[in-house]
Amino acid sequence: MPGPSRSRRSTPPALTLPALAGTGVVLRAFRDDDVETVREASRDPLIPDITTVPRNADRRGALAYIARQHRRLRSGTGYSFAIADAADRAIGQIGLWPAGDDPGRASIGYWIVESARGNGYASAALRALSTWAWSLQSLERLELFVEPWNTGSWKAAEAAGFEREGLLRSWRVIRSERRDLFVYSRIRAPGESKDDSAHRPGA
Ligand SMILES: CC(C)(COP(=O)(O)OP(=O)(O)OC[C@H]1O[C@@H](n2cnc3c(N)ncnc32)[C@H](O)[C@@H]1OP(=O)(O)O)[C@@H](O)C(=O)NCCC(=O)NCCS
């Protein structure tokens, strides 16, 4: 029997973004009225170096970033959520990016704007995202990568149940230099739920 056509194999299906409730945060789709949050992120010394947030974005550049997050979903590349606080104000972003070559693995990246840091938002968003991720049937391993100096990031990962596996030496170029990165992972526990209904707002 012939296999699937090349175009079928190379075009992943569009994804659907749920809204997810965490402790004091909601993960939801970006909206155009989140534009000032993206502009604040664009002035951060680190965020534009490790994400596609353009440095010192004007309104147009920030709206283009928001449009890209929706396109990633439509193209099946991954799930990009705005992290919103209890008043539904966007205060950051978190993404789940399935590995192209392995349906069992996905990586996670995130940022919180400077004005909202230190409130547990990154930890809460990571917990909500990684708990929901187990509703994606094929996933068995979540991973994230953090520079050793970035204590806030790896503490957020640990607070969300990620375990440090080691130091990947010279792993990635950041600011024109190859950097060492800690690798953290969470593995699906035996019997971990594949039902996501408990994590949706109002559930
Ligand atoms: C890293 C980042 C996401 C943390 O966001 P946050 O919402 O402030 O994190 P939380 O409030 O959930 O804090 C998590 C833990 O780190 C600690 N922490 C936060 N910022 C810290 C800092 N600058 N130095 C030391 N510890 C810090 C908190 O006290 C908390 O510790 P606890 O679990 O023992 O209470 C945010 O600083 C950021 O967006 N930085 C720039 C982008 C970035 O680094 N992204 C991650 C790349 S891997």
Notes on the structure:
This protein is an alpha+beta fold. It has a single domain, classed as Gcn5-related N-acetyltransferase (GNAT) (Aminopeptidase, 3-Layer(aba) Sandwich). Helix content is 27%, strand content 28%. The protein has six helices and eight strands. The protein has an eight-stranded mixed sheet, with helices on both faces. Strand 7 (163-174) and strand 8 (177-187) form a beta hairpin. Helix 2 (35-42) packs across helix 4 (59-74). Bound molecules: coenzyme A. The site of coenzyme A has 21 residues, from helix 3, strand 5, helix 5 and helix 6.
Give the secondary structure arrangement, pairings included.
Elements: H1 6-10, E1 20-21, E2 26-28, H2 35-42, H3 47-50, H4 59-74, E3 79-84, E4 90-98, E5 105-112, H5 121-133, E6 141-146, H6 151-159, E7 163-174, E8 177-187
Parallel strand pairs: 5-6
Antiparallel strand pairs: 1-2, 2-3, 3-4, 4-5, 6-8, 7-8
Helix pairs in contact: 2-4, 5-6
The site of coenzyme A has 21 residues, from helix 3, strand 5, helix 5 and helix 6.
Determine the oligomeric state from the structure. single chain
CATH topology grouping: Aminopeptidase
Judging by the overall fold, what is the CATH architecture?
3-Layer(aba) Sandwich
Structural class: alpha+beta
Spatially, the strands of the biggest sheet line up as 1-2-3-4-5-6-8-7
Largest sheet: 8 strands, mixed
Number of domains: 1
The run of helices and strands is HEEHHHEEEHEHEE
Beta content comes to: 25-35%
User: How much helicity do the residues have?
Assistant: 25-40%
Low-pLDDT segments: 1-7
State the separation between the terminal residues, measured CA to CA. Answer: 44 Å
Report the principal-axis shape: globular
Identify the bound ligands.
coenzyme A
Mean pLDDT: 91
Give me the CATH superfamily: Gcn5-related N-acetyltransferase (GNAT)
